[in-house]
Design a protein that fits this description.
The structure holds 2 protein chains of 2 kinds. By secondary structure, chain A is mostly helical. Chain A contains 11 helices and 4 strands, in the order H-H-H-H-H-H-H-E-E-H-E-H-H-H-E. Chain A has helices at about 10-15, 35-50, 50-60, 75-85, 90-130, 135-160, 165-195, 205-210, 220-230, 230-245, 250-270, and strands spanning about 200, 205, 220, 270-274. A two-stranded antiparallel ribbon of chain A has the order 1-4. In chain A, strands 2-3 form a two-stranded antiparallel ribbon. Chain B is mainly α. Chain B folds into 2 domains: about 5-200, no CATH class; about 200-265, no CATH class. Chain B starts with a helix and ends with a helix. Classes of the chains: A mainly alpha, B mainly alpha. Chains A and B meet through helix 2, helix 3, helix 5, helix 6 and helix 7 of A and helix 2, helix 3, helix 5, helix 6 and helix 7 of B. Chain B: It is a multi-pass membrane protein.
C-alpha cells in the first residue's frame, strides 16, 4: 500500500475533537486503550471503510493498553493519522504512539492538573466566596477554552511536525509550566492564608486583674496572635499538613480524620471557635 | 425546605452530566460547578456558592495524581453537602463539608468498582470487531461513560430524595459536635492547599509562597491582584529564559563563523 492521502483537514479536526471521548471506555485492564480506538474510528473508517476485515483488524490492534493526557493526545492521533494516511501499517506507527504516551502524560498532567486547574480553581472559588453568582460558569469557560485551545494546538503540531518536535516541545513546555507554577504558588499561598479558618476563642484571664473586677481583665489571644503575624495559625496548620504529606507520607484520609478530630476536640475545650 | 420530585430528578440529571463530564475532561465534576447546579435548581445560589467555594478549595489537591488514580469525589460536598446546607437550618457550608466527606470517600470506592467492572470491556470489544459488529464496538467503547452517567443520576436523585431521612439523622447530632465539625470544616482546606503544594512547591518557588502570604495576609489584596503580581514575576522569568536560550545559540553560531573564517 502506498500513500493514499484521503484524509482532509476536517478529518484531523474531527479526531482532535474526539479526544474528549478518550476515557469513555476507561477501565482497569487497558485504561484508555478502548477509547483510543474509539477516537480513531471515523478516520479509520474513511481510510479502510471499503475493507471491513482491515477496519476491524486495525481497530482491534489499537485496543491495547494506553494511558496519557487527554489534552495532549491530539498530538499523537494526528501523527498516527498522518502516518496511516501515508500507507504505514500499525506495527510501524505503534512505536511512536507508545513512545509518546509517557512523556505527554507527564507534560500534560503537570500542565493541566498542577498549573491550569489549580489556578482557575482558586481564582474562581474565591470569586464565588465573594458571592459572584456566575463564578462557576466563568470557571468552566476559562478551563474549557484553555484546554480546547491546547487540544487544537497539539493536533496541528502533530500533523505538521511529527516526531522531531517532541524534545523542543518539552523544553518550551517546562518553561511555560515553570512560569505558571510561579503564579500558582503565589496565589495558592495567598489563599491558604485567607481561606483556612482558625480562630482562637480562648481568652486568658489574669487572676490579679480579675480580683480587682476590672472589665478589661481578659487577654484576647487571637488579637495577640494577629499582632505577631496575621493568619498565623492557618499558615502553620497548612505547613503541618505539608510536612505530614511530604515527610511522613500521610494519606488524605489520615489528614482528614486528624483535622476533624482536632477541630472537634479544640472546639469542645473552647480553644477554637467560629 | 422540601425538595419536590421534579427538583430531585433535575439534581439527578445534573449530577449525571457532571460526573460523565469527568471522563470527558471538561471539569464539570468539581465542587464549585456541582454545587452551582444544585443552587440553581433549589433557587439558593448564595448558599450553593459558599458550599462550592469551600469544598473546591478543600478538594483542589485531591484531584491530582497519575492518570487512573481515583481521588475522593467532589460529588460528596458538591451535591450531598450542598443539599444539606440548603435544606437544613443548622448546617453551615463548613460543617456541610465535614459531614459530606464520608460520601466523597464512598463515591471514590464506587468509582473504583466501576473501573474494575469495566475491565472486561476490551475483550468484549475485540470479539465484537471479530464479528464485524462496528455498532456494538462503539457501544462497548462508551460503556464506562454510560455507567458513570447512571451512577451519577442515582447519586444525585437518591441524595436529593432522601434528604428528609438525612435531615433526621443530622438533627440527632448534638450541638457541640456540629460546632466541632464547623471548626474542622474551616480547617479542611489546609489539606487541599498542602496537597497541591507538595506537588508544585520547589525550593526555587519558596519566595513566591512568601510573596503570596504577605500580599494576602498583610496587604489583604484580592486574589486577582495576587495573581497579577505573580504573573509579573512569571513573565519576567519567561522572557529572561527566552533570552538566555537565544544568547548562547547566537554565541556559538558566531564563533563557528569566525573559526570557519580562520580556517578558510
Amino acid at each position: 500500500m502506498t500513500g493514499s492521502n484521503v484524509l482532509t483537514n476536517s478529518d484531523y479536526h474531527k479526531t482532535t475533537l474526539r479526544a474528549y471521548f478518550l476515557q469513555n471506555g476507561f477501565n482497569y485492564s487497558n485504561y484508555q486503550g478502548l477509547g483510543y480506538s474509539l477516537i480513531m474510528y471515523p478516520a479509520f473508517k474513511k481510510l479502510y471503510g471499503n475493507d471491513p476485515d482491515k477496519l476491524a483488524e486495525v481497530l482491534s490492534e489499537n485496543i491495547e493498553f494506553y494511558n496519557t493526557n487527554p489534552n495532549l493526545i491530539p498530538f499523537i492521533t494526528s501523527i498516527h493519522l498522518a502516518m496511516a494516511d501515508n500507507g504505514l501499517e500499525y506495527k510501524e506507527t505503534r512505536g511512536i504512539k507508545m513512545a509518546l504516551m509517557g512523556p505527554l502524560a507527564g507534560i500534560g498532567d503537570s500542565l493541566s492538573q498542577f498549573c491550569i486547574a489549580p489556578l482557575f480553581s482558586t481564582i474562581f472559588a474565591s470569586l464565588a466566596m465573594n458571592n459572584i453568582a456566575l463564578a462557576p460558569v466563568f470557571f468552566l469557560l476559562a478551563e474549557n477554552i484553555t484546554l480546547l485551545a491546547i487540544k487544537f494546538g497539539m493536533g496541528a503540531y502533530g500533523k505538521r511536525l511529527g516526531t522531531s518536535m517532541i524534545e523542543k516541545l518539552s523544553a518550551k513546555m517546562s518553561q511555560i509550566s515553570d512560569a505558571a507554577s510561579m503564579v500558582g504558588v503565589t496565589v495558592i499561598a495567598g489563599l491558604a492564608a485567607t481561606f483556612v479558618k482558625m480562630k482562637v476563642t480562648l481568652t486568658y484571664a489574669s487572676s490579679a486583674k480579675a480580683a480587682k473586677g476590672a472589665a478589661t481583665s481578659t487577654v484576647d489571644i487571637q488579637a495577640l496572635l494577629d499582632k505577631v503575624a496575621p493568619a498565623l495559625l492557618p499558615v502553620l496548620y497548612t505547613l503541618l499538613m505539608y510536612y505530614l504529606i511530604k515527610k511522613r507520607g500521610w494519606t488524605t484520609y489520615k489528614l482528614v480524620i486528624l483535622t476533624v478530630v482536632i477541630g472537634i476536640v479544640l472546639s469542645l475545650v473552647h480553644v477554637l471557635g467560629v | 425546605m422540601h425538595i419536590t420530585l421534579i427538583q430531585a430528578l433535575l439534581i439527578g440529571l445534573w449530577t449525571a452530566f457532571c460526573y460523565a463530564g469527568m471522563l470527558w475532561g471538561i471539569y464539570t465534576n468539581r465542587a464549585l460547578v456541582l454545587s452551582f447546579g444544585v443552587g440553581v435548581i433549589l433557587n439558593d445560589i448564595p448558599t450553593a456558592l459558599a458550599c462550592g467555594a469551600v469544598a473546591e478549595l478543600a478538594f483542589m489537591g485531591f484531584g491530582v495524581g497519575a492518570g487512573g488514580t481515583v481521588p475522593p469525589n467532589p460529588i460528596g460536598p458538591g451535591i450531598i453537602g450542598t443539599l444539606m446546607a440548603i435544606t437544613m437550618s443548622g448546617v453551615t457550608p463548613q460543617s456541610a463539608l465535614a459531614l459530606s466527606i464520608p460520601f466523597a470517600v464512598a463515591i471514590q470506592f464506587l468509582q473504583t468498582f466501576v473501573y474494575t467492572l469495566c475491565a472486561g470491556l476490551p475483550e468484549a470489544a475485540s470479539n465484537a470487531l471479530k464479528a464485524h459488529k462496528f455498532g456494538k464496538f462503539r457501544l462497548i467503547a462508551n460503556t464506562t461513560v454510560i455507567l458513570f452517567a447512571t451512577v451519577g443520576f442515582l447519586l444525585g436523585f437518591l441524595g436529593a430524595y432522601s434528604m428528609d431521612t438525612l435531615k433526621t439523622l443530622v438533627n440527632m447530632i448534638p450541638a457541640w459536635l456540629l460546632t466541632g465539625l464547623n471548626v474542622a470544616g474551616g480547617m479542611l482546606p489546609a489539606i487541599g492547599f498542602a496537597m497541591i503544594m507538595t506537588v508544585m512547591l520547589k525550593k526555587q518557588l519558596v519566595p513566591f509562597a512568601l510573596l503570596g502570604y504577605a500580599l494576602a495576609a498583610y496587604l489583604q489584596l484580592p486574589v486577582i491582584g495576587i495573581a497579577i503580581i505573580g504573573l509579573v514575576f512569571a513573565l519576567k522569568f519567561y522572557f529572561e529564559q527566552d533570552e538566555k536560550q537565544a544568547a548562547p545559540a547566537q554565541a556559538t553560531t558566531t564563533s563557528q563563523e569566525e573559526s570557519r573564517d580562520d580556517w578558510i
